């Protein structure tokens, strides 16, 4: 499939005004971006790879990254945010990711707190935000890694993941060009980061909730200490922290750990239309 935007990004070393470090293969785009950030790479720099040998996700899990099949990109950001607000970047990126997928593919997707992209209950994308520490007197660098299973055949996923993972193409029944998807993602990430810097997290959170695939669902939460909590998801609060109400009525604040639908529960996936975020200088 000829993809002129993807080819242009490779040839010109940039997309939508962002410099791009393109790699045919790497261990992890986040690892490369982290090194570039520590060397002083400017904010907005992207690291894009055809494939990853050691892509990683949240909780140190491996992210399968077959060459030429997915979108594997890391953004070097230096947002003007307070340290306590940096975790909000993950939820903001989730909104950007949903909007980009709908724009470029017309495939409706949903979000699983805090960083998973879901398609009919299966994971098809993920977000990993990491900080690189201070460089000079500038703001802290945040490495925002995003992986999307774009054209990965369903048969590629190992048996243990076949009912948990999918791709846009496997679900939609047709392949998609990655160039338009990358362009949409870059533009959407730019928008949500600017909005976050202006104190607009409430607007971002409202958009995130429209794509929330777990609110009012019965979940099992395994805490980092191994305790198991089962209850109803109340969704994220005004600071982006998830809350679960257990069967005794106790509300738990989820900071980290593993979330799954409780046994016997089936997700409800209503149709999702693109959410609207104000874009100065660009039409919605």
Care to give the gist of this entry?
This protein is of the alpha+beta class and 284 residues long.
Explain what the structure shows:
The protein is of the alpha+beta class. Helix content is 25%, strand content 26%. The protein has helices at 4-12, 29-38, 88-105, 168-172, 178-197, 201-210, and strands at 14-15, 18-23, 46-49, 70-77, 110-112, 116-119, 122-133, 141-149, 218-222, 228-236, 242-246, 251-254, 258-261. It has an eight-stranded mixed beta sheet with strand order 1-2-3-4-8-7-6-5, with helices on both faces. A five-stranded antiparallel beta sheet has the order 12-11-10-9-13, with no helix packed on it. Helix 3 crosses helix 6. The longest helix is centred in the middle third of the chain and has 20 residues, at 178-197. The two termini are 28 Å apart.
CATH class of the largest domain: Alpha Beta
Helix-strand topology string: HEEHEEHEEEEHHHEEEEE
Classified in CATH, the superfamily of the largest domain is Bira Bifunctional Protein, Domain 2
Distance between the termini: 28 Å
Number of domains: 2
> Might you state the CATH topology name of the largest domain?
BirA Bifunctional Protein, domain 2
Please give the radius of gyration in angstroms: 18 Å
What would the average pLDDT be, to the nearest integer? 85
CATH architecture of the largest domain: 2-Layer Sandwich
Question: What count of helical segments does DSSP give?
Answer: 6
